[in-house]
Structures are given as structure tokens and as C-alpha cells.
Amino acid sequence: MQTIAVNADTYSDYLKDGKDFIDDAALTAALSAPAPSAARVREILARSLEVSEALPPEDTAALLAVEDPALLEEIYQAARDVKRKVYDNRVITFAPLYASNYCVNNCQYCGFRTGNSGAVRRKLSMDEIRAEAEALAGRIGHKRLIFVTGEHPSTGAAYIAEAMKTIYAVKVPTRRSFGQIRRVNVNAAPMTVPDLKLLKEAGVGTYQVFQETYDRELYARLHPGNTPKGDYRWRLYVMHRAFAAGIDDVALGALFGLNPDWKFEVLGLVAHARELEARFGIGPHTISFPRLESADGTSLPADSLENVSDADFKKLVAVLRLSVPYAGMIVTARERPETIREVIGMCTQRDASTRIGIGAYSERAGAQEAEKQQFILGDTRSLDEVIGELADLGHITSFCTSGYRCGRTGDHIMKLLKAGKEGRFCKLNAVLTFREWLDDFASDKTKAKGEALIKKEIAEIRARSAHFPPETVKVLEAYYSRIEGGERDLCF
Length: 492
Ligand code: SF4
Prior knowledge:
The protein contains 20 helices and eleven strands. By secondary structure, the chain is α/β, with parallel strands linked by helices. It has two domains: about 10-15 and about 80-415, Aldolase class I (TIM Barrel), CATH 3.20.20; about 420-485. Helix 1 runs parallel beside helix 3 and helix 5 packs across helix 6. It is globular and about 60 Å long. Iron/sulfur cluster binds near residues 103, 105, 107, 113 and 151. Iron/sulfur cluster binds next to loops.
């Protein structure tokens, strides 16, 4: 059993004049500026479309201040344009694997909190984790997952590293070939540098920690000071420690709805991205913006769920998309299908076939799932249904995990993303991995939609010879035939 890290001072070296990179006064001042002119908004949008570094706070605040419906439409269109420019029409799908709901923290909004005496506690063994991965890779068809635990001595870095090795070792038969989880991302507590090195050695994809709220006072109210999570700075500087441990693929997020002043959280996320860019030359790989959902055993005011309306949500997604133009953007199954449809054109990833009960993928339809969930899901559709809908909307589902395995991470991927070049590899790999999934898992209906989409993608690739020279197309065609013949994991 590991012990929870002592939150020693690990941030002093990163302070500027004794201050954190979250400058409350500067962010608040930026938010109080008057609404910008249309000309200024268009100038900001044009800069965002250049896909360089994250926008300064005053630009993000200016976009957030726009209320004019016509100008807002321009913002939404620009957000979709940026997404297209950097990531093309692909959407990556994944599933969360909830491995344990033991937690020493007492976050007021979470069903896993230690004070929730009604929660049924459970931690998966390695055999159970293997069964979950087999269900995801063999029955549903996922290739990537995010491994999630509460914060507890029994589920520290050693447990997570062993789980990752267990998951990577899974290889299960499918309709045409075999399934595997090729990328394991981790969402867990902030760790020490030695613990983060353990995750790195075990092959972590993206290391994800959400600050929840960047507002210090609110943070202190929601996270009791006698718990590890009560230390705002220990959490705020976790990605600095991740870089120190050699992990250069990190993910940020905030839990929207905790703070009635949700615009502050948008500025906090962008300030965090700018700090990582300035300090390490690499911004976040992804940004998440989960919205508060009801959960058993929480103790938030009843109206907290109304702090961010659907209209606010669409706006914050668009402004984040534009403010950190190179970053992947994750919309989750917390949201209802209609909300996801509104924003998916600005996003790069979503989860699907999601189950958040502990052991819920491998055990029959979770008889006790409601007792073990951290929150309530808004979109419970199957991966097959989600992929069919994405195809209807013109998005190709990508199961590509090659960037990480070919060394396209960190500084390398940032350069490709900013130059709009990563999309080229991705387009080819999306076609190949989508073909795999259609053959192994799709219903007849989704397969027909998917094949029509693949045809269109290949025609587009052939037509864009400046991006895809004839020799590349030849390799694509060769890989494609081999995949149809049952080979797997061929990628650019
Ligand atoms: S939000 Fe995370 S740290 Fe807080 S109680 Fe829930 S599982 Fe624990």
C-alpha cells in the first residue's frame, strides 16, 4: 500500500515575484472590460485562425463579452473553422474506465467523497481490470480509454502502473480480427515526480488532472483543508511536476457549474495553457469542460446545476476552442445528445458507450451501477449509435493512437498542430482505423454509413495531391487492403 503524498512545497521555483500564474486581479479586470467592437472581435478570430499560441486573457475575455447574436454566430463558425483547420473532420472516441471509488477527499460535489456514507465502495483487482479492458476492446470496440480512480493510498501510482500494464497486455478476438487497447490515458490525483515517473514508464498516454475551479476562495470552500485536495497549489502545479517527470502530454480541465462566474474558469484554463507554453514550450494536449451533474451524496446548493446554461456552455466551448487553437477539446457523455450535437464541430474527442459504475463494462448491465456512479450521464447511447450519428454529421470517427506510439507528442506534435500538419497523418490513420472498427464491430446500418464516408475521405485524399503525394496514397491503399484482410494496427 502506498501513502498519499505529503504536499511539500514544490512550487516556489515556479512563482513569479512570489505570485502564482493565476493572477486573480488581472483575470477579473479582463472580465470587467466593456464589450468589444465587431472589428476587434474579427481581428481576434483572424489571429486564432493562425493557430499559434493561446490568446492573452484580454482577448479571451473580449470574446466572452460578446452578446450580439450575429457576432456570436461568427464566433461559432470561427471555432468550427479552427477545429477543421487543425484536426480536419475527425472525432476520436474513447471510454472512461472507473477502477475505484475509494477516496480520501471530501469534495462537496462528488458522490465518491469520503463523507458520502451511502456510497458502496469498490476497487477493481487486476483480473477485474483485465475483464473491463477485454469488454471494451473485444465487445464494444474501443482502442483508447481513460483510467479513473479516486485518491486513496490503495490506488496510487503503483496500482495505476500495474493496471496500465494489464490493460496493454489484453488481446481479444473480434468478428474479423482482434481488439486491443492501444492507449491508456490517466485521470487521477496529483502526484509526486517519482510517482509520475512510474506512470511514464508504464506508458501513460495523457495525464489528466482537472483543477475543478481556479477561484481560490471557492476552491477552499469545496475542498476541505484537512484533505490532500484542499491544497490548491499542489494541484495547480501538478503539470509542472509532470513535465519534470518526463510526461509531456498533459490535459487540463475545470468542472463548470461550481463557479457561478464561469467566465473566470475559462480565463483560468487559458492562463494555465499559457503558463505551460511559456514554461515548457508545450501547451495542453487536451482541455475538458465537464459540466456539473447531479450525483448521490453531494452537498451543493440545489441551483448549482443552473450556473452554466446550455447557451453559456456553447459559448464557453467556442471561446476555449479559439483561445487555445492547437488543443484537443473533449466533450463528454455527461452532456445530452442534443448538447453534444451543438458543439461537436468544435471538439476533437468524446466518450461513448460510457459506463461509470465500477466494473460496469464487464458485469451484466450494472444492477448496482447507480450506487457506484460518480455522477449521472446525459448520453448513454452505444458507440455504434454515436458513430452512426457522427457519420450523418460528416465526422469520421478515428481510433488512431499512432501519434503517441510514433513519438508525435509534446513539442513535436505541437509544431505539427500549429503548422496544420498533424491533420494529414490523422486523416490517413482515421480511414484505416475506422475500417478496422467497421469490420470488427459495426451494425449493418452504421457500416453502410461508415463505408460511404470512407469512400468520400479516400476521394478527398486522392484529390489533394499537394498534401498526399501518389506514393502516400499507394501506401494507404496497400494498408487498407491488408486491413480488409484482417491485419490490424497499420498506421502512418
Ligand atoms: S472529485 Fe475526485 S478527489 Fe474529489 S471526492 Fe471525488 S473522486 Fe475524490
